[in-house]
Recover the amino acids of this structure.
């Protein structure tokens, strides 16, 4: 992954594309910050999301649910 990151930043791409990696980084940091805010203010919401994801994986017959069940 580090190699693809370096390839996105060096050599610098032309103008509009040189801003995309930094915009993505800002977007990811905002998502991480929102996760921590949500975790601090409403942890029950994250538990509900976790339960919904587990139910969806079980309904889809995901191999991950078979490993978790063992």
């Amino acid at each position: 992954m580090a190699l693809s990151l370096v390839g996105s930043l060096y050599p610098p791409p032309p103008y509009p594309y040189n801003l995309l990696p930094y915009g993505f980084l800002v977007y990811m940091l905002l998502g991480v910050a929102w996760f921590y805010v949500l975790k601090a203010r409403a942890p029950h919401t994250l538990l509900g999301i976790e339960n919904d994801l587990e139910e969806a994986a079980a309904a889809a017959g995901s191999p991950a649910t078979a490993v978790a069940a063992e």
